[in-house]
Structure prediction request, 503 residues.
Amino acid sequence: MSQKSWFAIVTPEPSNSKKMPLENSPPRVRFAPSPTGFLHVGGARTALFNWLVARTQGGVFLLRIEDTDKARSTDESTAAIFAGLEWLGLDWDEEVVYQASGLAQHQKDADRMLASGAAYRCFCTPEELTEQRKAMTVGKESFKYDRRCDRLSEEERSARLAAGLPFVTRFRVPEGTTEWDDLVHERISFPNKDIEDFVILRSDATPIYNMAVVSDDIAMKITLVMRGDDHISNTPKQILLYRALGVEPPKFAHVPMIHGTDGKKLSKRHGATAVADYQNEGILPSAMVNFLALLGWSPGGDREVMTLADMTKLFSAAGLQKKAAVFDPKKLEWMNGQHLSRIAASELEPLVTPMLVQADIVSESELVERREWYLALIDLLKIRARTTHDMVRQARPYFAARITYDPDSTAKSWKDVDQTLTLLQSARERLSKLHEWRPDSMEGALRALADELGVAAGKVFQPLRVALTGMSVSPGIFEVLEAMGRDLALARLGQAIEHIRPE
RNA sequence: GGCGCUAUCGUCUAGGGGACUAGGACGGGGCCCUCUCAAGGCCCAAACACGGGUUCGAAUCCCGUUAGCGCUACCA
Prediction:
């Protein structure tokens, strides 16, 4: 996929918006993670869906770092989120917004509500609140703030204010019902009586989550909020805030959670949950993105293996699922194998080269020198690999001066020492006499040898395979010989003979 | 506890009243191909949570039950 700069500013194009039922004008969407850890697969999927909405409709995909929780936010996490998105190929538009820098606006919006009477000051201390809560819970009733501070007389309120008592700002939830047409769930509705007068500004005047989100989404002119469905219960509060601020709420789309194999919310206990973990495990970004997309979305029909570009043509909110999906690492691996075998060697090369160098198998300069040969080798190895690690593991024999022999393989294919010795020696002799180092001539020579020895061809190929690669698994034997090259292959055979020969 | 969301093979899903003896994919089992392993091909086992409606007809619409999950902070 062609990658634009992260910070490229893309002008919304109002062209093909009519085709998609999601929005009637190009949407402005955002991904808003808090930088308190690495990019989680759930977050990555939310980002992906938002990105897809923007890219399919000529909209804008924005990134907002919700760093208002100073205690837990770190720069490392922010960097990891950028890196994760970049790796997946999800580029964003405009400048990154840092929520903490919007503080003044958050306060301004909250004060506006205070002024308009949509919110009020609450002087209850955390301790008092705990007391009230305790008293309520005893009677089996669920706690809801009883609005006592809203009933304070004018004099009392002024007195407390003058005395400099600390206060929080609470939103006064009006009577009625708050509902919206969710893009994935259709109509969702909450009776306002179940929503308590929630705090929007702490006693230090910093905003609470819902306040900051609404204020930012207004400032960023977000038209569609697409996020995990664990936010459903925040939504009525946010809608109320929009209304109190005199702003039309955006559309909402709540996508289902991702669960672990045990059906519980995906967590550390389920193993790898950060996209970087999968990157390290040799998963291709295209496979990751493909797999994630299918967790909660379907293009309809049987289509499964897709690139980001394909999805850009197929994505529609109509294909979004309501139900939580279980993350199945087995299917991810399969998916990776599919992508691996389809991707061009030239695209794979930048991913594999550093791994090869790091594993100390070969130097980068050698690969540059033999690029054409190297690309052919990648094509050879990618077919039977499920991860890039598999490829690296398989690549060693084509470079290393010496190899080690897998004990299981030698035990199985080199059972009889004398026979093996004879066989390897004859094979080496025949191959060395070949005028041309080509698969068809090798095959002729080796099959003839098998005939003369009166054994099946496999009885020749398999010991040979172990001698050449040290393993019992490899590409076709003639492909191995060809890729290895005459000199290395013959040397390898010599080494194997030495290795087997009794003292 | 309250509120909300959800409910098709073990898993991801197709399905949007008759085309359903419910399709595909992963995983599992078997066979074929074959120099090994993948890939590929073929086959098998495997699901509409339950109970009521609506309808000539329900996996599809409605209600209830059950179960799972989420939220329930001066966290985000």
Q: What stands out?
A: Residues 407-500 of chain A form a domain with the Arc Repressor Mutant, subunit A fold (CATH 1.10.10.350). Confidence is low (pLDDT under 50) at residues 1-23 of chain A. The two ends of chain A are 58 Å apart (CA to CA). Chain A is about 50% helix and 10% strand.
